[in-house]
Amino acid sequence: MQESISLCLRGGEPQAQDFGGIESKFALRTVKEPDEDTCYLVPGQEDTVAKCNFNHTSKTFVVIHGWTVTGMYESWIPKLVYALYKREPESNVIVVDWLRRAQQHYPVSAAYAQQVGEDIATFVDWMEEQFNYQLDNLHLLGYSLGAHAAGIAGSLTKTKINRITGLDPAGPNFEYAEANTRLSPDDAGFVDVLHTYTRGSPDRSIGIQKPVGHIDIYPNGGGFQPGCNLGETIRLLAERGFGDVDQLVKCSHERSIHLFIDSLLYEESPSLAYRCSTKETFEKGLCLSCRKNRCNSLGYNINKVRTKRSTKMYLKTRSQMPYKVFHYQVKIHFFGKLNVTKTNQPFLLSLYGTLDESENIAFILPEISTNKTASFLIYTEVNIGDLLMLKLQWENDSIFSWSNWWINPEFRIQRVRVKAGETQKKLVFCSRDGISHLKKGKEAVVFVRCTDKFMNV
């Protein structure tokens, strides 16, 4: 990039600014060619802003890629550019090209995130000072290493950037890093983060595990995403060939991007995330509350709630777009004549509603005991509407189970309580027989919406 000099006003005195050290490139992509860098905004060269038809009064999205093995743009970039323009047709979508630095050995590229952040900050300051561009309209979206470059940029700009979205920020070299060298809540007016691949020990996790934003969302617990298992990878390889092999390897890491794209394309049905202290508590269905900002939309339309401490949120998703599911907390009180305790028991639950049904949802209860209440999370991929009826079946551990040869355990159930996360409705279901006898390996027991008749049983 050629060296250029610009006059900037600092403290009332004109001062020459050198942009020659900027190596990152800033391509303003278009809705007609979302996959091509056809026009570059060059800091210090004012005419490039006019040539690229930059819209000075619209929102601007700055997309920052991460580490790359191939030294080429990844296939998600044009998909995200297209989705941003579809949602905000008058906006500017800028893709930051730092491919040369990003294709080094990972530790080298990770160290370059600092300089990339500095480049972006210099570019943003120039746009603000030279063209009076309002940073309230600026939204940085950084993936993996790009998320930390976005954070560094936000910490260096003279005026605070409106929003930074971290898409599974990189873990190695950053999990234990100081806040000023990685993404942190101080880097923008609002920082939201999606964590989708946080497996393994903290120093080896592909995605950063600790919260680094105002709101940190961990889809499916944040460790592994549906559809990214080995069997699914083999199936997709058979269908698509090896052209997408790099994408399949990074399936969970890159899911963060596709979840954000989903939020742009499916505005009418956003995925809801729920505030919870741990993923284990969330799995018990104990966090499906929307009171006092306890739930929020994932992605573009997130409610920008800022708290002193990072807010951790969880949700389940489908394996493919649209990713939205419907969450339910189910509470069952087990009682009986004999004291029985069973661990890791397999069940099937079927839900029937006014719009649809979802049958044979498999789940495991870690422990069930006589005279104790179990709470667990269930989710459906379809919107069943208002819940009318449910069936519960206690499965055998296997086709032939020695544990059931001598004795067939039984629990009695009178009512099932259900809370729907998306509607916040609480419902009580009663056994059609007054009391249901749930036996292992036998037929399902049925519960219907309670009436006064059933409630008095």
From TrEMBL:
Main localisation: membrane
Active site: S144 (nucleophile), D168 (charge relay system), H253 (charge relay system)
Enzyme class name: hydrolase
Gene3D superfamilies: alpha/beta hydrolase, PLAT/LH2 domain
Pfam family, one: Lipase
Subcellular location as annotated: Cell membrane; Secreted; Secreted, Extracellular space, Extracellular matrix
Molecular function per GO: apolipoprotein binding; calcium ion binding; heparan sulfate proteoglycan binding; heparin binding; lipoprotein lipase activity; lipoprotein particle binding; phospholipase A1 activity; protein homodimerization activity
Keywords tagged on the record: Calcium, Cell membrane, Chylomicron, Disulfide bond, Extracellular matrix, Glycoprotein, Heparin-binding, Hydrolase, Lipid degradation, Lipid metabolism, Membrane, Metal-binding, Nitration, Secreted, Signal, VLDL
Positions with a binding annotation for Ca(2+): R182, D187
Membrane topology classification: Peripheral membrane protein
Domain PLAT: 326-449
Catalysed reaction equations from the record: a triacylglycerol + H2O = a diacylglycerol + a fatty acid + H(+)
Transmembrane segments: none
Enzyme Commission numbers on file: 3.1.1.34
InterPro entries: AB_hydrolase_fold, Lipase, Lipase_LIPH, Lipase_N, Lipo_Lipase, PLAT/LH2_dom, PLAT/LH2_dom_sf, TAG_lipase
GO biological process: one example: positive regulation of macrophage derived foam cell differentiation
Cellular component, GO annotation: catalytic complex; chylomicron; plasma membrane; very-low-density lipoprotein particle
Record note on modification: Tyrosine nitration after lipopolysaccharide (LPS) challenge down-regulates the lipase activity.
SMART domains: LH2
Function statement: Key enzyme in triglyceride metabolism. Catalyzes the hydrolysis of triglycerides from circulating chylomicrons and very low density lipoproteins (VLDL), and thereby plays an important role in lipid clearance from the blood stream, lipid utilization and storage. Mediates margination of triglyceride-rich lipoprotein particles in capillaries. Recruited to its site of action on the luminal surface of vascular endothelium by binding to GPIHBP1 and cell surface heparan sulfate proteoglycans.
Oligomeric and partner information: Homodimer. Interacts with APOC2; the interaction activates LPL activity in the presence of lipids.
Family membership noted in the UniProt record: Belongs to the AB hydrolase superfamily. Lipase family.
Protein name: Lipoprotein lipase
